[in-house]
Amino acid sequence: MTDKTKDILSLVEQINTILKGSIGGIRMTDKTKDILSLVEQINTILKEGEPGNISKDTYSGYVGYKPQSTIDAVNTVLGPNNWGFEEVSITRDSDIDPKIFIYNIRVWLFHKEVSRTAYGQSRITKGDFGDGMKGAQTDALKKALSYFSIGNRAYLGQLETTEKKVVQAPAKELITPKQLPTLMSLLSKKGVTKEQIYKQYKVESISDISKALASTLIDYLMAKKDVAREDMENIPIEVYDKAVEEAWISEQGAQV
Q1: Is residue 52 situated within a structural domain?
Q2: Which of 140, 155, 170 delimits the end of a domain?
Q3: Which of 38, 185, 195, 224 is least buried, going by the fewest C-beta atoms within 10 A?
Q4: Own/partner pairs, 205-208, CB within 8 angstroms, 24+ separation
Q5: What are phi and psi of 20, to 5 degrees?
Q6: Are residues 183 and 231 in the same domain?
Q7: Does 255 map to a domain?
Q8: Are 223 and 135 in a shared domain?
Q9: 109: closest CA among 135, 139, 133, 85?
């Protein structure tokens, strides 16, 4: 290794030492560290407020933080007098029949020299210009704040709404015309009253019970020579749901 090579390696080592306290190659001052710490606090508040502070645009499908939640988090950490924004420009897509407002905004933190500009837009629905302008303004505001990494989880696609795919339960298929007289006859023969059935299975009439439950009861009653009141009361009420589930899964309900 030549002396020249050693000198180059020494310089590289010095540069790397400097970069240990830097971000993106720029030495991080105490002031920068303070700002980053405050941004982290804001983002912590936003994250802890999820999913209640998240909204989804029904038109574009974009998921982001609600504007007021973002503003409240910034106000809580920085104080309302230590940041602000100003309008740079506002335009619309047409002077005759506008559909969209486009807002350009400048957001500053602590000093106006520390600022970021961004565009935002919003649709005009039902001729409501006021809502269109407010939507464009808050869209631009959130985007400008994101340049300070405030609310960046939204732009990184890390937000999840509470929306879940609802699994529809199978529709209840009611007792069939063939099952009804059979069940009524068995109830009478075994000394079981209709009121017992109403109470046990939370129905208002025999015709309200399901086909699957009717099959279960018919099979049960036919297998019993004598059915005491205690017997009917001991039939688990879960038999209704279980019978429906089994009939749905296997698609093979017991047939009379």
Answers
A1: yes
A2: 155
A3: 195
A4: 206/175, 206/180, 207/174, 207/175, 207/180, 208/174
A5: -60, -30
A6: yes
A7: no
A8: no
A9: 85
Tell whether 144 and 210 lie within a shared domain. Answer: no
Contact criterion met (CB below 8 Å) for 75 and 180: no
Residue 191, token pair as written in the block = 């000394």
DSSP assigned state of 208: G
Tens of pLDDT along the chain (256 residues) come to 677 666 666 666 666 565 555 444 445 566 677 888 899 999 999 999 988 899 888 777 889 999 999 999 999 999 999 999 999 999 988 888 889 999 999 999 987 888 999 999 998 888 888 888 999 999 999 999 999 999 999 988 888 765 544 445 566 788 888 888 888 888 888 777 888 888 878 888 888 888 888 888 888 778 765 554 445 555 544 444 444 445 444 443 444 4
Q: Which residue is listed with tokens 């335009």? A: 91
Distance CA(228)–CA(222), nearest Å, equals 14
For residues 186 and 219, is the Cβ–Cβ distance under 8 A? no
CB contact at 8 A, 200 and 235: yes
Find the DSSP H helices in 52-156: 67-78, 129-146, 152-155
Cα–Cα dist 72/227, whole Å: 67
Expressed as residue numbers, the domain containing 208 is 179-250
Same-domain check for residues 145 and 78: yes
Cβ atoms within 10 Å of 110's Cβ, excluding its own? 16
Report the number of distinct structural domains present in the chain.
2
Residues 151 and 32 in one domain: yes
Distance between CA atoms of 155 and 142, rounded to whole angstroms?
Answer: 10
Could you tell me the end-to-end alpha-carbon distance of the chain, in angstroms, rounded to an integer? 95
Identify whether residues 124 and 51 lie together within a single domain: yes
150 lies in the same domain as 36: yes
